[in-house]
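Figure S4 source data
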Amino acid sequence: MTYSELETLYHLPLFELLQRSRKVHEAHWPAGEVQLCTLLSIKTGGCSEDCSYCAQSARYNSGVTPERLMEKCQIMERAKAAKQSGSTRFCMGAAWRGVREGTERFEQVLDIIQDVSELGMEVCVTLGELGPTEALRLKQAGVTAYNHNIDTSPEHYPNIVTTHSFQDRLNTIRHAQDAGMSVCCGGILGLGETTQDRLKMLEVVSEFNPQPESVPINSLMPMPGTPLAEQQKVDVFDVIRIIALARISIPKAKVRLSAGRTHFSEEAQALCFFAGANSIFYGDKLLTASNPAVEKDLALIDKLGLKPQEPNRNLPAPDADSKKALEPQLG
């Protein structure tokens, strides 16, 4: 969807925008289901990147203690607990710049993925940059989706990260898609960006070919010691508008209400679900930040008359549109 189309929708009266997004949502997601995802940091802190929002960067005194890659038995224990609590997708994140073929840590991660995939849940990983070989091996090991957010607009990105480029992000997404993995890609609101930056972020994501399988919408949770530690909280109505636009512009994607939910009332979360969100991170912790408790999430889902979505490991990656160029680029 083009920037001008997104801008026109964004400035509609809120209720009119919600009516439009709800119509799209019901056309593509009529079952009233919410995907429950558990996110586990399998390697925390000590990252060489300088992402201004991230407490895991080694460049900032954020209080996060660097940890080595978790033992497989520990990860499997957490994955089994996630499945037992109702999660249908298990997401594993590692604070690395990327992974490379032929390294011990990559082989260790592949071994972990293979065992987790045998539990029957969807498997998502976020490991930083990928080349085509690494992407293919992840797919073969059992990864169903690769998470790699673009965070913000191409124009604002250099203000947030300098150790890699926006195009680097797009290259990894291309490699994941070419390997046959679905892509989980969204952004973060509250990075000092303008409304225009938010709309340009959605324009880029909606123009992926194929479109992402899931789109996380994060609200910055300012972390002590990071350059964005003093940022103001995002207005919840801004979040609701962006969720509505994500639903309209990427209709077949799961739109994930991600980081920042601890700041939202139940009423605000209900509006997010109405606007088009149908996926959440579920559990007590979201990487290095807190997350609403399991029982509280289940109770809210029940109050709204929704139900947890079943896992679908056989869900194919979205098809590319042959009418579009296959290579995501800036422009």
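Figure S5 source data
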Amino acid sequence: MTDVFIIHGIGGSPSENWFPWLKDELEKLGCRVFAPRFPDSENPKLESWLAAFEKYKPQLENSIVVSHSLGVAFLLSMMEGPNRPVKAAFFVAGFVSPLNNPEFDELTKTFVAKPFDWGKIRRNCRKFYVISSDNDPYVPLEQGRTIAKNLKIELTVLKNAGHMNEKAGYTRFEFLLEKIKEEL
């Protein structure tokens, strides 16, 4: 049985976007799926998210992690610490630096206003997928390119996928599910 984690972003929850659908589909395949609700998602702090995730660390080794938006920076930070390598990481619509939106950048600074230890992150995961959209209204494509370059992998670009959230029509995410199945 493979453990899978689904990590939401800022202002988010495990009950939005494609997260509930993906959880159901993976459970049908025999996976044990964790979709934590992080504290104060409207005004997130990296330290409080890391503390909330502590109880899941025993299940992290050899798991699959999936994250969306700010959840990507959270998982990257989390993967700097443990020496419990995960099987695969899927980073969807992620960013690792300010987005030139002063109010938003202030809210996300504890997650992205810092250097990442890319070498340690690469050592803590066997396979990475970075998925970005060519028309994300919030996260420029360059952010996905930066993440992929630092992970030394190819970026996957989806055409006209927006932020790959419910507003962009993503209550299901077949492409992502098929990629995850390749890693089970």
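The helical segments are 19-28, 46-53, 57-60, 70-78, 102-112, 118-123, 141-151, 174-183. The longest helix spans residues 102-112.
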